[in-house]
Amino acid sequence: MHRIGVFVCWCGSNIAATVDVERVVAEAKVQPGVVFAQDYQYMCSEAGQNIIKDAIRTHALTGVVVCSCSPRMHEATFRKAASLAGLNPYMVEIANIREHCSWIHKDKEEGTEKACVLMRAAVAKVTLNVPLKAGESKVVKRALVIGGGIAGIQTALDIADAGFPVDIVEKNATIGGRMAQLDKTFPTLDCSSCILTPKMVEAKANENIRLITYAEVEEVSGFVGSFKAKIRKKARFVKEDVCTGCGVCMSKCPSKKGLNEFNMGLNNRSAIYIPFAQAIPNVAVIDKEQCIKLKTGKCGLCEKVCTAGAIDYTQQDEFIEEEYGAIVMATGFRPIDASKFDEYSYSTCKDVVTSLELERIMNAAGPTGGVLLRPSDGKHPHSIVFIQCVGSRDVSGRGKPYCSKICCMYTAKHAMLIRDKYPDVEVHVFYIDVRTPGKNFDEFYRRAAEQYDVDYIKGQVGKVYEENGQLVVRGVDLISNEQIVLNADMVVLATAIEPDPTARKVANMLTASIDTNDFITEAHPKLRPVESPTAGIFLSGVCQGPKDIPETVSQAGAAASKVIGLLAKDKLTTNPCVAHSDELLCNGCSCCEKVCPYGAISYDTKLINDHGVKENRRVATVNEALCQGCGACTVVCPSGAMDLKGFSNKQIMAEVDAICL
Amino acid sequence: MQRVSEKVIARARELMREGTVNKVAGWKAGEFFYDCAPYVFESEEALKDLVYDRFCAANLSKYMIKNSVAAGAEGGKVLVLLKPCDTYSFNQLLTEHRIARENVYVLGVGCEGMCDIDRIREKGFKGITGVDENADGKTLTVHTLYGDGEVAIDDVLVNKCEFCKGKAHMIFDELISDNEDEGPRGDRFAGVRELEAMSPADRFAFWQSELSKCIRCNACRNACPACSCRKCVFDNDASGIASKANTDSFEEKMFHIIRAFHVAGRCTDCGECTRVCPQGIPLHLFNRKYIKDINEFYGEYAAGAEAGQRGPLINYTLEDIDPAAVSDKGGN
Amino acid sequence: MSVNGNLTAAPAANAPAAEWKPRIVAFCCNWCSYAGADLAGSSRLAYPADVKIIRVPCSCRVNPMFILKAFERGADGVILCGCHPGDCHYSTGNYYTRRRMALLFSMLDYIGVERGRTRVEWVSAAEGARFSKVMNDFVAKIRELGENVKVGDLRCKE
């Protein structure tokens, strides 16, 4: 039998002025199942809560309805009170007679009538409530960071500093990512390597961090607190723990035709190589597409010259399986393919380069040793034209609709550095807008334009072409409204950036949602910017959206703090208002699985005992740790096997009934 | 259809004899010649009762849910005869993981349209003893106690064949068909459009008049391949819809409206609901309304055109129309 | 069983018009629209008491059965409010809602429940004023349409 208590709050005069609370109490008393009803000035006060607690004990209440303010305000308060009195907290329902009634109605008769209806609906619902218990799940105290650029490194360092073990999985042979390729950083112009490499070394040295380089995450299962990942460690053909990084193999290797990825393909490297001098781990790797020994079985020079005996041509891919409590995506970005914008002749003229290529040309460790030389003939250029927004803010479909955010600043940096080192070089910059919203950013840009005399031209370039061995840039100056034709020795394209192509695959594996541009979606764009809607998955760096280094580092730290907060817990309590499937009713149709935004539903073939008949059936199971309780699955379930605890079909129908009485 | 019919029956026997299948789901002649009911034959001997003629309208797809599982348990295979329109239902059930495909041998059978005995009777024939298809393939000779007569097949087709989806099979392991696919026949949404053109009050009156005929025999539900839940919501007290205790009138009053939504996006328009209704309620008008709306709102979609499709109600695009477009916010 | 075959929307001529009060059910998602309704309340932005709100976690929790039930029970209007498309707390819930409701409302219209009686509105937690306006508009529309057909009588013609 139901024994329901109804408690009507006056909220001082907030409710009592427009709702006749005594009449609501009288009406409550005649509702089926109601054994007790009382009103009080402030139900949320200590004294008010005591009235509820006493009534639960004295009248052995099985359910409580509080007619008061919004459940968003005090549902938790009243649930806690009920729980203290020994009643399951989920046996409490709130009738919102303040925000949805007394505050918006002036006529007391009308207000009272409506309050009675809302009370009735809550009573009807609570008679169908069942005690719920928040579940618990374990937390594996280890984190996985996917991506070893500055974002991944920073996140890992912060997590490790808090005392938790963390694995970085990096697809390349070294950590460091894009930042390692940069020359100087805006707006301070400090050397990128000088600030990054110490962090790389720190990551290597930190005993809580395990670096798994030249590796990719292949499979992820599980849920927040308890993920399982399978990681493929690709064969390097070099024993990582034996190689000393001396580099003799590189100099002796006869196959030197491989494009040097680190230098954006501007020069070549040997088949056995260390990506760059400060690589971590400082271990060689064999490019199996270039290696003569691996392709033909002949050669084997590197093995002969390696005094450490690190070369192993028989090495196979290895798999690592590990459990994690939290996963951070730090998959980063790449510049878009500039050959899509062939009006700038990128694919035909060697002296048309992307900004990242220019970074390498300017870098002391780059292909030209840091001397500004143009790629076609290695001569010193006298005039350079920069074109901004190549593929950014492009709604034509060829490029990206978003602003890549960093290009205005790095172009200003490039222009300034060139003018500083080579005052004889003329520098022109075509721009749509110059966007400099960052600390010391606008000052930096003005310095470039004013002190360094960089020629900023508001306008777009229509065409870049070669004429008699001379690059010609045709554009428009929107301010003077004139056609401009410039001769240039080099053209630099500030290409848009896009998420690394692996991001989509990784996101799918993690059931992290992804936007139309392949950036990972945040749980809330303003309030939960470093979490994915999928619990336990966190976002660090450009995989979430374009960012510069300081922003990346601060987001990396924020992601780390969220991970630490999660790993610090021994157990997670789960929201008990989750979906559940009745196995006897389940058809196995998979509709629910398809609409679940959290990947919380899985299908298994199970032995079902249906009233004595045992058979193997394909049935849905809800993972309560992943389910967030939206209810999308309940509506698509044709058989009604799927229902939502706390908001069941019957409960909501009962409310409808009570309102339409 | 005579030729196809002979080939189909012969092939079914052959497949049974050579052991490719150990069961055959087909049609068995009943007490009257037009009573061709679904039947699962378990021996070559039993197959002497297998028929395939102008009265084999029943869609056998739904029977594969239980029979495919049962066949697997016995280590055998079941042969099912599917007409072009039936293959949509079969595919839809595959999409919903309801059929163990590996245990089914699908024999696609050609079809030139099924006839409705009631429509023949409406032509004035009484005491019908038999019907023969004439050589022209367009007319039937109707034998009655009072002599023979002739009727055009086009005039006596069952509703679903009047609006045939086409002669192409969407799935089969083997095909016996002489037909070329001429695409869909007639405008199947004409009836829906007619209703849409009425005033709301007239529409209500129309449906009230039709649905009041319903005797809740559940034939529509039982024949419908989409209505194949292990336990129907109308039989499940926890669904909030069933009301066997007779304390709630929701199920009783809204049965067809609820049923129509339940199969929306999954209904292949196989027409079985209307065909089996003993009261002649045009139930397909509900299903076709949903299909028409889905096509208009979200692009052409044919449930069961291929297995594994993502249905329109478990899908979305960012550009979907707002319900305001149909609820006609503010105006009327 | 009493059978009311009266199809006319207007109240009986001899009954005073004030007696009829529309029964309106509003389903509101917990994260946006329910909070928007709270904000309308705390901003004292009035709307008629005919509107009774049922809280659901997400607009996608609203089973068309709930709406059919409301109409069967004699509701004169049903409105469903959720987060704006793109802002769903559960990221995709309201996209499914959008499809379901478009189809359901079209079907309701098809069986004779006028289009104006069903509505989906996207109201954010910050849109208290909009919540109030939406409800005022909706109630005005229902009053204009008058009493609804007795959907529950669909199978009860004499």
Explain this structure to me?
The complex is a heterotrimer of chains A (661), B (332) and C (158). Chain A is an alpha/beta fold and 661 residues long. Chain A has five domains: 4-126, Rossmann fold (3-Layer(aba) Sandwich), CATH 3.40.50; 143-234 and 317-332 and 500-567, FAD/NAD(P)-binding domain (3-Layer(bba) Sandwich), CATH 3.50.50.60; 248-305, no CATH class; 334-498, FAD/NAD(P)-binding domain, CATH 3.50.50.60; 575-645, Alpha-Beta Plaits (2-Layer Sandwich), CATH 3.30.70. Chain A contains 18 helices and 34 strands. Chain A has a five-stranded parallel sheet, sandwiched between helices. A five-stranded parallel sheet of chain A has the order 20-27-21-22-23. Chain A has a four-stranded parallel sheet with strand order 2-1-3-4, sandwiched between helices. Chain A is elongated. In chain B, strands 1, 2, 3, 4, 5 and 9 form a six-stranded mixed sheet that branches. Chain B has a three-stranded antiparallel sheet with strand order 6-7-8, with no helix packed on it. The model of chain B has no long low-confidence stretch (mean pLDDT 91). Chain C has one domain: Rossmann fold (3-Layer(aba) Sandwich), CATH 3.40.50. Chain C has helices at 33-42, 64-72, 93-110, 128-145; strands at 24-29, 51-56, 77-82, 118-122. Classes of the chains: A alpha/beta (661), B alpha/beta (332), C alpha/beta (158). Chains in contact: A-B, A-C, B-C. At the B-C interface, helix 7, helix 9, helix 11 and helix 12 of B face helix 2, helix 3, strand 4 and helix 4 of C.
